[in-house]
Amino acid sequence: MGVYVIGTLFGTFVFAVLASLLASMGIFNIEALAMACGIGSGSMMAVCTGALANAVPGQQQSILALVGASNVLTYATGLYLSIFVALPVTEKLYAWFGPKAETATAGERSCPIRPTKTFRSRNSPPKK
Predict the structure, then answer these.
(1) 3-state helix, strand, coil in the chain (%, to 5)
(2) How far apart are the C-alpha atoms of 5 and 45, rounded to whole Å?
(3) How far is it, in rounded angstroms, from Cα 89 to Cα 93?
(4) What are the pLDDT digits (tens) for 86-99?
(5) In this model, does residue 111 exceed pLDDT 80?
(6) What is the mean pLDDT of the chain?
(7) 3-state SS, one letter per residue, for 11-57
(8) Most buried in the list 66, 76, 89, 125, measured by CB within 10 Å?
């Protein structure tokens, strides 16, 4: 949760500065910058969109459309990538590098703690 909060707070400043700098320098196409604004959280997307819309006022509608499409595509592909790629890879890496569990054979106890004293109830007869 801390990473999300810090990213949202400081990422908005970074996105705003980078978007306005790159748009004013003319290195990248404005459509490419608009698609790059779609990644990240909603607050970062809004700040980046505002910076680009101020840098190029004539293309506000296309910037908003590309930012929205990029955001939807990022979340949709991120969901499937995490389910079908990241989760199986994580499980495989954990199986390779994680702690090795000892398997119990038939008759063995899986719990290493053994009782030292047996307690009996008041109504049960004493053991002989």
Answers:
(1) 70, 0, 30
(2) 15
(3) 6
(4) 999 999 999 999 88
(5) no
(6) 84
(7) HHHHHHHHHHHHHHHCCCCHHHHHHHHCCCCHHHHHHHHHHHHHHCH
(8) 66
Whether 10 shows a pLDDT value over 80: the answer reads yes
Q: Which two tokens stand for residue 62?
A: 């296309």
Which two structure tokens, joined as six digits, stand for 52? 């680009």
Residue 38, number of CB atoms within 10 A of its CB: 20
pTM over 0.70, yes/no? no
Q: How far is CA 78 from the centre of its chain?
A: 9
Count Cβ atoms within 10 A of the Cβ of residue 50 and give its class: 0-12 exposed, 13-18 middle, 19 or more buried. middle
**DSSP annotation of 127:** P
Q: At 85, is the pLDDT very low, low, confident or very high (cuts 50, 70, 90)?
A: very high
**The tokens of 44 are what?**
């970062």
In this prediction, residues 73-90 reach a mean pLDDT of: 93
